[in-house]
Amino acid sequence: MLQEMAPFSYNHTNTQDMWYVLIGIPGLEDSHPWISIPICSMYVLAVIGNSFLIFLIVTERSLHEPMYFFLSMLALADVLLSTATAPKMLAIFWFQSMDISFGSCVSQMFFIHFIFVAESAILLAMAFDHRFVAIYSPLRYTTILTIPRIIGMGVIIALRSVVLMFPLLFLLKGLPFCGHNTLTHSYCLHSDLIKLPCGDTRPNSILGLFVITSTFGLDSLLIVVSYMLILHTVLGIASGAGQWKALNTCVSHICAVLVYYVPMISLSLLHRFGGHLPPLLQTVMANAYLFFPPVVNPIVYSMKTKEIRNSIVRILPRKRHEVSRQIIP
Q1: How far is residue 326's CA from residue 329's CA, in Å, rounded to a whole number?
Q2: What pLDDT, in 10s, does the model give residues 235-260?
């Protein structure tokens, strides 16, 4: 099907009539049903793990703290990211449904980038939260991060993502498409879409670079600065036990930051300098990267956060008791 549709050409086609071709794993088309098994498994794990985390934070009063409210935002973003990409990817692997309309592709692109930008801001907010305020200024913690302020920060995070992403949509809509229509991933990305038009895409590239710099670049820099301040404060604690206890509260968040940024940077470096590497490697990494943080984050926070572990221990016996009462009236 890919070979049949790829030569399709456009002569300044209206964007409303555009259709694209998303690839699966080139060269492994016969293995797509088998490749779909880990993709589907990661999607199910991501949805179940993050949904359970949100449920736990909402229902357990002991978790009604700023740190866990931000964690619930991160979990919600992970669910939305997985859901925005997995169904179409599985349709490609299961039914060879590789074509996607311009509107659907741009919508998917918007949600993917919107969620990526939002997650970066949430990780920064979490660094400011329990990682900075709770350690650097613990006596003012509850007065600084009140519920209205947390809600306001969530609204600002969403608005920032929308404001940065909407101009990209309008710039794409105004470009003339007259070349090939095959994208290089199983999902739609802005960097992929701007390779197809035959018009001037410099404004798109400049705006895309600005978005990356002002979000991922700035957020990661502020996270590093936040941890430098935290480390300076922790080193001022007299006892070694106190230092370790303070640093131990940062482990989960550090893992989440690494899980988010390291694969992203690795994939960017692979695209930039990995021209001599097999394209198959880039495609597999690009597909797996979307699901790696959503799958790993609930596991990390469940294992490394004592309060979440205690909540899980409390809730599971309660659920078993409710089930037994339903079975045995």
Answers
A1: 6
A2: 776 566 767 776 777 888 888 898 89
